[in-house]
Structures are given as structure tokens and as C-alpha cells.
Design brief:
The longest helix is centred in the first third of the chain and has 17 residues. The protein contains ten helices and eight strands. Strand 3, helix 4 and strand 4 form a beta-alpha-beta unit. 41% of the residues are buried. It is of the alpha/beta class. It has one domain: Rossmann fold, CATH 3.40.50.12780. Helix content is 40%, strand content 17%. It has a four-stranded parallel beta sheet, sandwiched between helices.
Length: 238
């Protein structure tokens, strides 16, 4: 009988990689018309959010972002940063959200240490990023979010993502977060798709979160990916 069990090799018929990006793909179907984002006068449903994510993922891929490439973001809590938590891993990239309170020297260190290929920055934080880039050894491509030099809008003009939403391996990195560096330089902490997925599911179970809750994103999205609450929201259509 043990021979029968050993023959159960992992394959497409019996295995799906665990990843929080699957929550958004499902939410676009199950919670399509439910409001997903409220930001000022902006209101977007889960279907609209998924469409934007798919376009941003394709836009990043057309810039050469693929598996294992670090995409850094320096921005406050905003809808675009929420969308990037899905779009970057969908195209295979690794999301690195940078603490918005850091000085230029530390930001430069993080950009170098993370091997960032692209850094997206909000208009108001562009000046400190420019200072950091003068100190950095690397030269990542800069894409501004909002303002006259808005490049995020160009990503949205790309066609929808044409690949699989899921990673080949659930142990692939999904995000790279940095500690505050209180006793030295900030230290990179890698999350994988599987861990992020289970953390989000665990939060729903432990907190007994019901359907369609309204969640105010008080935690900075750069801090541990907002504790995974951005991914959690897609599970329950919040």
C-alpha cells in the first residue's frame, strides 16, 4: 500500500501553489461589485481593482520585471500601493516597501542591498528619493505615482496580464521588508507566497472576520505589508 502513496507525485491535477494573489483573482469573481477601495472621492470595486492590478503587472513585465526582481516602493498609504501588493508578485517580482520616515542615506542603502530594479515613488516623496539616488551605487528605474510626471498611469495603459497569477513555487519570495536598524543597518526579511497566504488566512480565522467588513488601513503599508491585512481583505471582500 505504501507504494501507492509514494506514487502520488505533485502535479497540476493535485496541487495549486499557495499565494495571496489568488485571493484577488477570486474576489474579482465572487465579490466583483463590492467596494474594495475607499480613498477620498475614489471608490473602486474588487473587479475594477483586479483589472488595474492585471494591467500594472503587465506593464511591469514589459519593463523587464520578472521572477525574483525587486520592485521598491516609497509611498504613503494610497490605492496604488495597495494594488502593487498584488501586481508585483503577479508578474513574479518581489515587493520591497520602504519606510517613508527614513532619511536619504538609509533609503540608498536599502535600494542597493535589495538590488532594486525599479522604485515607485509618490510625488511628495520624490525629493528624498532623489537625494537617496545620489548616494546609492545602484541606479534603479524611477516611476512616479501621481503628479505631472505620473508614470503609474502609463502602467495602467498596458494590456491585462497574460500569464498565470500564481507563482511556480509557493516558496518563491513575495516581499522583502526591512527592519528599523536600531542596532545597525536595516536587515532584510523575506516573506514567501506560502507564508503570506497562510498569515492572511490565519488572521481571518483568528479574528473571526465576517464578509464585507470595512477596514481602515491605519498601519503603514510599508510596515510588514500592513500586517498582511491588504491580502486578508481580498479573502472576505472587505
Amino acid at each position: 500500500m505504501q507504494d501507492h502513496f509514494s506514487a502520488l507525485n505533485r502535479g497540476a491535477a493535485n496541487h495549486v501553489a499557495l499565494s495571496p494573489v489568488s485571493f484577488l483573482e477570486r474576489a474579482a469573481e465572487v465579490h466583483a461589485d463590492v467596494v474594495a477601495v475607499v480613498h477620498g472621492d475614489t471608490r473602486r470595486t474588487w473587479a475594477q481593482t483586479a483589472d488595474r492590478v492585471a494591467r500594472v503587472a503587465q506593464g511591469l513585465a514589459e519593463l523587464g520585471i520578472g521572477k525574483g526582481d525587486t520592485v521598491s516602493v516609497l509611498a504613503p498609504n494610497m490605492p496604488e500601493l495597495f494594488e502593487l501588493h498584488f501586481a508585483v508578485p503577479v508578474c513574479g517580482g518581489v515587493l520591497s516597501t520602504i519606510n517613508t520616515r527614513l532619511e536619504a542615506e538609509t533609503i540608498a542603502y536599502i535600494l542597493d542591498h535589495s538590488d532594486s530594479r525599479v522604485v515607485l515613488v509618490s510625488e511628495e516623496l520624490r525629493p528624498v528619493l532623489e537625494q537617496a539616488l545620489k548616494l546609492a551605487e545602484s541606479a534603479p528605474r524611477v516611476l512616479q505615482i501621481g503628479g505631472a510626471a505620473d508614470a503609474f498611469a502609463a502602467l495602467l495603459r498596458a494590456g491585462p496580464w497574460r500569464g498565470s497569477w500564481l507563482p511556480e513555487d509557493e516558496w518563491d519570495a513575495i516581499s522583502l521588508n526591512y527592519t528599523s536598524g536600531t542596532s545597525g543597518r536595516p536587515k532584510g526579511v523575506v516573506y514567501h507566497h506560502r507564508g503570506a497566504c497562510l498569515m492572511a488566512l490565519g488572521t481571518v480565522a483568528a479574528w473571526q472576520v465576517g464578509h464585507h467588513p470595512v477596514y481602515m488601513s491605519v498601519v503603514p503599508m510599508f510596515h510588514c505589508n500592513a500586517w498582511g491585512h491588504l491580502w486578508k481583505a481580498a479573502i472576505v471582500g472587505g
